[in-house]
Every structure is written in C-alpha cells, then in structure tokens.
C-alpha cells in the first residue's frame, strides 16, 4: 500500500468515527484486528472491536478534531494525533459519575496496515487529565 493510500485509509476511518458510523469503521479493519485500549486489555478480532465501540457509544459522545496523520515510507504504519471533544453521557464502571460533562483531551493512535486494512489500533490519552475534567 502506498503512503497516500494509507493516509486515505486512516482519514476515512476517522471520518466514519466522526459520523458515528461504527459499521463503516469496521469495514476498514482486518478480521483479526488487534485493538490496544489505553490502560486496558488487548482485544483481538472484529467482534471485540464492535463490542468496544457499542460500549463507548453508550457512555460517550465524541468527535475528533485537528487530526494530523503521519505515514511511514511503505505505508505499513501510521500514527495520528488529534483532540477528542466529548460529552460523558452515562457512568462508566470505575470512573466518576456521568452528568453530561464535556471534555477536550489530546490523544494519539498508532496503526499497523496489512493488505489494505488496519491490522492494529493502539490509542493513548491521559486518563488522569480526563478524570480531572469530568470530576471537576
């Protein structure tokens, strides 16, 4: 895959995220996608990714802004930095009570690309910062 193709793949993935279109997001992922969640367990496969998205959609409404995508020479790896603009909708287990709080959080994701699909998604953000914003 070329750098330009990978750039388009990642941008399309985030466009689907911002539309709230989980099914479109899944179409960009390999069947055996590895999903490394910030301060969480590794999930493997589309079913686990889909379940994670459903849980997130229940607890949070998020939009990513100022997305900057970086791709290596052969298009097999990419990274994105962005700001998460969100609303905390429903209390998530072990976290502060949700009362519709809003937050803005810098975050980043690393990707591995294989056969024209995203094969790994690894996301990082500062959980302590998020807790401080919603616990306010």
Give an overview of the whole structure.
It contains four helices and six strands, in the order ααββαββββα. A six-stranded mixed beta sheet has the order 2-1-6-5-4-3, sandwiched between helices. Strand 5 (102-114) and strand 6 form a beta hairpin. The chain has a single domain, classed as Nuclear Transport Factor 2, Chain: A, CATH 3.10.450.50. The chain is α+β, with helices and mostly antiparallel strands and 136 residues long.
Which descriptors apply to this entry?
136 residues; alpha+beta; Nuclear Transport Factor 2, Chain: A; six-stranded mixed β-sheet; 34% helix
Layout: helices, strands, pairs:
Elements: H1 3-19, H2 22-27, E1 29-36, E2 42-44, H3 46-59, E3 60-71, E4 77-88, E5 102-114, E6 117-125, H4 127-135
Parallel strand pairs: 1-6
Antiparallel strand pairs: 1-2, 3-4, 4-5, 5-6
Concise overview:
With 136 residues, the protein is of the alpha+beta class. Helix content is 34%, strand content 42%. A hairpin with a 2-residue loop joins strand 5 (102-114) and strand 6 (117-125).
Count of folded domains: 1
Structure classification:
alpha+beta
Q: What is the first-to-last residue Cα distance?
A: 45 Å
Rounded to an integer, what's the Rg over CA atoms? 15 Å
Helicity level, as a percent range?
A: 25-40%
Order of helices and strands: HHEEHEEEEH
β-strand percent reads 35-45%
Total helices: the number is 4
Instruction: State the name of the first-level CATH class.
Output: Alpha Beta
Low-confidence stretches: none
Strand order of the largest sheet: 2-1-6-5-4-3
Number of strands: 6
Can you tell me the overall shape? globular
How would you characterize the largest beta sheet?
Answer: 6 strands, mixed
Summarize model confidence as the mean pLDDT.
Answer: 96
The CATH topology assignment is Nuclear Transport Factor 2, Chain: A
CATH architecture: Roll
